[in-house]
Design goal:
Elements (H helix, E strand, L loop, with lengths): L1 H30 L6 H9 L13 H10 L11 H12 L9 E5 L20 H4 L17 H5 L5 E4 L2 E4 L9 H5 L5 E5 L4 E5 L7 H7 L9 H5 L3 E4 L2 E4 L10 H9 L5 E5 L3 H7 L24
Antiparallel strand pairs: 1-4, 2-3, 5-8, 6-7
């Protein structure tokens, strides 16, 4: 009998506590409720859900909240592209502003055989580790070729081919994961005014004599491109392209500059269209480029 009384009292106590805490939680839910703008959910559903970080936010839902609450631009989803931009613009009641797609470019053109003064490396096979060691290769600017970018890409759009990171633009969505993974900052995100753009496939700012000692294809700063086309400016022995003035429909002088380059450092990257191929004729085009010349050691401390 005593056991049943104890069980009954325990059950009654638990029931009382359950009713009490249910009432408290119900009151707290009403008292502290924060209204959520339904547009956030609508924007989140319009986004592809890739959570790649290409928009600058941790995930798609965070970007959706920023669009609604902080008036972030609606054109930052690199995976969804223009259709996603239009969907977000319709939800927010704004005009979809057309924007240039951003894609990664690799500003190094040297394959394994082109790199001189190389030494055996027996450390951890990653670019991040090799970048901290002196003597891995003579050029302290170029691609190390251990594939950190390849492992970081969620879309299988970049691969190390013969020691050089090479972008597959048919798969690339422009999320920027490869650029963030590169310890030498040789992969940068660039706006593409056309499916295929011209760029400079080198980042070495040393003198021509020093470049020849460490690389078979590196830029020697001869300024032939600058003399041939006003789009090119050579500074610190390295040419850059004025992409503000770059016009995909008028590349006559730029093509001549590419032809005059003795080291073939001016290249075209991206997906070639019929129009691009017709404009470039029979020119053989490498697969790497450099629109943003942030050099090897700008963000990295290393020995040697």
């Amino acid at each position: 009998m005593i056991i049943w009384v104890t069980i009954g009292l325990s059950a009654a106590a638990m029931g009382t506590l359950a009713v009490f805490f249910t009432s408290v939680l119900g009151w707290a839910n009403r008292a502290f409720h924060v209204p959520v703008d339904p547009r956030i959910e609508a924007c989140a559903e319009a986004l592809p859900g890739a959570n790649c970080g290409g928009c600058g936010f941790v995930g798609c839902r965070e970007y959706a909240a920023a669009v609604v609450c902080d008036a972030e631009p609606v054109d930052r989803c690199v995976v969804g592209g223009q259709s996603c931009t239009e969907a977000l613009a319709a939800i927010m009641g704004v005009d979809p502003t057309p924007s240039l797609p951003y894609r990664p470019v690799v500003h190094c053109g040297a394959h394994t055989a082109d790199r001189l003064l190389r030494a055996p490396y027996h450390g951890e096979p990653t670019c991040a580790a090799a970048n901290l060691v002196t003597g891995v290769q003579g050029c302290t600017y170029g691609c190390l070729g251990f594939g950190d970018c390849q492992r970081a890409c969620p879309f299988d759009a970049i691969h190390v081919i013969d020691g050089l990171a090479t972008v597959d633009y048919t798969r690339c969505v422009g999320c920027g994961a490869c650029a963030r993974a590169c310890p030498r900052n040789i992969i940068t995100m660039a706006p593409f005014k056309a499916e295929r753009i011209l760029a400079v496939a080198c980042s070495n700012k040393d003198s021509g004599k020093d470049v020849r000692r460490v690389c078979e294809v590196g830029c020697i700063g001869c300024k032939a491109c600058q003399r041939a086309c006003s789009l090119f400016t050579v500074q610190d022995n390295l040419p850059s392209i004025d992409y503000d003035a770059y016009c995909p429909d008028d590349l006559g002088d730029a093509i001549r500059a590419m032809e005059k380059c003795p080291r073939h450092c001016i290249v075209a990257v991206g997906k070639p269209s019929a129009k691009d191929l017709a404009a470039l004729g029979d020119e053989q085009l490498p697969d790497v480029v450099a629109p943003d010349f942030k050099t090897t050691v700008d963000d990295t401390e290393w020995r040697g």
